[in-house]
Amino acid sequence: MSTPRVRFAPAPSGSLHVGNARTALYNWLHARGNGGTFVLRVEDTDAERATPEGYEATLAALRFLGLEWDEGPEVGGPYGPYRQSKRQSLHEAVATALLEAGYAYEAFETREELEAEREAAQAQGRPPGYQGGHRDLTDAQRESFRAEGREAVVRLRTPDEGELVFTDVIRGEVTFAWKDVPDFVILRADGSPTYPLAAGVDDLAMGITFIARGEDLLSTTPRQILLADHVLDEGLLDRVLEAEGYAPRPDVERPRYAHLPLLVGEDRKPLSKRHGAVAVAEFRRQGFLPDVLANFLALCGWSYDDRTERFTVPDLIAKFSFDRVGSNPAFFDVDKLRALNGDRIKELDPAELADDLEPYFVEEGLLDQPPSAAQRQLLHDLAPLLQERIQTLAEAAPLVDWCFADEVAYEDKAVDKHLRKGRADEVLDAADAVFTELDDWDAESIMAVLDEVSERLGIGRGKTFQPVRVAVAGKAVSPPLPETLAVLDRGLVLDRIRSAKQLLGA
Ligand code: GLU
């Protein structure tokens, strides 16, 4: 058996959906784990939906996840071009060859006629598919339709009876009755190929041996298998490839299929925007780490031993296999993703975490681009304090924005609750004095003098810490106070305590 050649074939109409990202990941893991080749083919034939932004976003999302491709756009390879829009003349030439060989025919029905046919079928309780009305037109009939100004689509003939049985790697034997598969359009009236033709031809021309894709495409599989039967018959495709100047097909077996289970939300409905974020870019913005997202997506449909949940990418490459992918819908459990991400953040080397956090802090305007050495140092000092308290990278900035700001922004609620109540003014006076006199500005000493203040005033630690925290941070939640204060400049801390006192005096 040859090594697998797999492909990911996104339609670049927007940002990459996590369901498609999982498809890409499974294909990539299969290739990487079996010495195979991962091909990226961008299916951008729908000119209205395929935008340059969608193309860039798709590639960026794959790169973010680390799913580098061996052949494809911007990388090249022997079986290109890898953007489907650039292969249209090949698809047209195959359609023409199928017409000449009698596997396909021109059909001239107008939209209205097809609609009427559908309605009639519905009224009679028949399935709505095309009835094959123009299957056997004579040359004269075709000429007269053309003379009327009608335009033809090209349809592939499907068998009238019998069954197609194929083995899906995930679902086992799958059977389709041919009577349920109407003759289908392969070339539209404007000469553009439809998805079953373009994808079917390209899979063969690129020597794809294994096709893992979403189960929503299962119904197109009989069409692609039938198409493959015809274009491989008597070297039809090989002749067209040669005539059109394409590389000969690699000498590999025909593709097998694996249809991946749907991703669903908590309500068991297909995962969509209603459930929250669904684009890889959105998860990136929220601060999920790429290897955690890959780990999590791998678990959406695959399991290793029903227990292990944490896998590094090399682990996944070593352990992933399609025989442990189930056919049941896979629950996209965002809480589990958050937990995995939080666990991973805790394990990161703090310096690595600081580097990962940097773009999020730049984005929030807390750091310059590029950050100054002092800003970078501050972030590195804060990283170990943040590590235990965040599940995503984006959660960090709001906890420590006040450490980077020139002026503290006081939250009214925190001021009312912790500064305008109790003995906050006494606490701030005392903190001002003990901080000023402190020999060593470090967490332990700060903790010790704050505890002294509590004792002296006869109040609990919270009643001391909270006023100081709100005075310096402007809010009631922050990483541990003594450690955070120790990271900051003492002068800045004192300035803020004094500003808070003024605020109270005002
Ligand atoms: N381009 C198709 C899509 O994005 C997928 C094609 C395939 O995997 O066969 O839905």
Q: How would you sum up this structure, described in words?
A:
The chain is mainly alpha-helical and 506 residues long. Among the domains are: 84-259, Glutamyl-tRNA Synthetase, domain 3 (Alpha-Beta Complex); 348-403, Glutamate-tRNA synthetase, class I, anticodon-binding domain 1 (Helicase, Ruva Protein, domain 3), CATH 1.10.8; 412-505, Orthogonal Bundle (Arc Repressor Mutant, subunit A). The chain contains 21 helices and 11 strands. The protein has helices at 18-33, 52-64, 88-100, 111-123, 139-147, 195-205, 221-232, 236-243, 280-286, 290-299, 313-319, 334-347, 350-363, 373-386, 396-404, 412-419, 424-437, 443-457, 461-473, 481-487, 490-505; strands spanning 5-8, 37-40, 104-107, 153-156, 163-168, 172-177, 184-187, 210-214, 256-260, 263-264, 330-331. The strands form 5 sheets. A 3-stranded antiparallel sheet has the order 3-4-7. Helix 1 (18-33) crosses helix 11, helix 6 crosses helix 7 and helix 19 crosses helix 21 (490-505). The mean pLDDT is 95. The structure holds glutamic acid (GLU). Glutamic acid (GLU) binds at residues 9-11, 43, 199, 213, 217.
Mean pLDDT over all positions: 95
Largest beta-sheet characterization: 3 strands, antiparallel
Radius of gyration: 32 Å
What's the number of helices?
Answer: 21
Secondary structural class: mainly alpha
